[in-house]
Amino acid sequence: MGTEPAVIPRTTTELLLLTHTDRRLHLVPVHALRSVVLFAAGGDVPGRTTVACTALPSGQVVHVNRDEIRPYLLPDDAVSAVLTQFAVTGLRPAVGPMPTGDLHAPPMFGNLADPTWLSLSLGGQCDSACVFCFTEWIRHEPRLTHDQAVRALDEAASIATVEGVVFSGGEPTLRKDLPDLVRYASTKGFASIGLQTNGHRTADPRYLNGLVESGVTHVLLSLHGARQETHDGIARRRNSFALALRALATLATDDRVVTEVNFVVCAQNADETEDFLDLIRHVAPKAAVRYSLPIVEGAAHDNAESTLPSLRTFVDRVSAAVMRAADSPRVSVANAPPCISSAVGLPPTYTLSLRRSMLGVSPFVSSAILRGEVAAKLQVCVGCHFTDNCDGLQLPYLRRFPQAHRHVAEARVR
């Protein structure tokens, strides 16, 4: 396939290309391209000054001559309209690991060389249905088997650089074997064992204590409102707020566990971003707060029009919360480009270098279902000192907000 010409339909007069090196979008007339070469595994085509690109929305990876596409760089104020014109969703098939021939091997991805932590996703099943749930697309997919989870822990423990493991889902506490898996992980020498949860099962002090005694050292608890009606509306589950608060109150009394509360900022809860701090101070004074941008896939993609906040809203609300928090509770930002973290006065925590430290194990990486996180950069990103450590903004965000470039410019000024 390395040198076969790509087949371009006669009705196509323009190609929308996303370059891999600088993550920029180019709208190129077909007649301007002298050659389009299908992706050759192993890099650039010998003897050509080419750049690898993804053709949107097909996802076909091609090589094109850089000089031929350079004049057709898409201006920032045209990005949203062109993405809409080409019906670009920003979704792509989940890409799994290379087949090993062992059907029972854990499906691993991410950093396979020198990871520092293992993200172990046990399954997509969940007893919430959050409006921005990025794993909604895997809710009904087969889950990881117990043996696969054990083998994943063995594999990770054999890598000298891996220091910790985080159990996630879906909702990992729905697994009856979770305490056994945590207990097994504790025998493998991990310095930290984390749990991401909605708090429903851990509202039972006996169940939570069992997990802690089995080895859990860190808990990331999902809580998405300062009021019951807000959180329950987002979670689309009655009594979810009460259960999560009960779990948080129990965690607050247990010095064996480091607790962080994840608040995903969206249109439904943005006006409670600051008040949320008062709730955490009251219930769990030692807990940290993490404000996250939605990852635009799954339910977050389906509900983007009604749920996705603008970067301007995120920066304004979280900046005010950071000022209000001072040093208590400790506040961080997740899933946001590093320039946005800096704009709210916090260290960047979603850089490429940090994300590349993860070894992932999940039953969904080989799924044919579309997922997201395809991102691009804008002209306004040029000159940013995070340029080599950032992918840009997700395509659904750029399509949803025609003024995205102004939002980024404002953040950089701040």
Detailed description of the structure:
The protein starts with 13 loop residues before the first strand and ends with a helix. It is an alpha/beta fold. The model is unreliable at 1-11 (pLDDT under 50). It has helices spanning 66-69, 79-85, 146-157, 178-187, 205-214, 228-235, 240-252, 275-283, 299-302, 304-307, 311-325, 338-343, 352-355, 395-400, 404-413, and strands spanning 14-19, 25-29, 37-38, 50-56, 61-65, 92-93, 108-110, 117-121, 164-168, 192-197, 218-222, 258-264, 288-292, 331-334, 358-361, 370-371, 375-376, 393-394. It has a domain at 108-309 and 357-373: Alpha-Beta Barrel (TIM Barrel), CATH 3.20.20.70. The chain is built from 15 helices and 18 strands. It has a 9-stranded mixed β-sheet, with helices on one face. Helix 4 packs parallel to helix 5 (205-214).
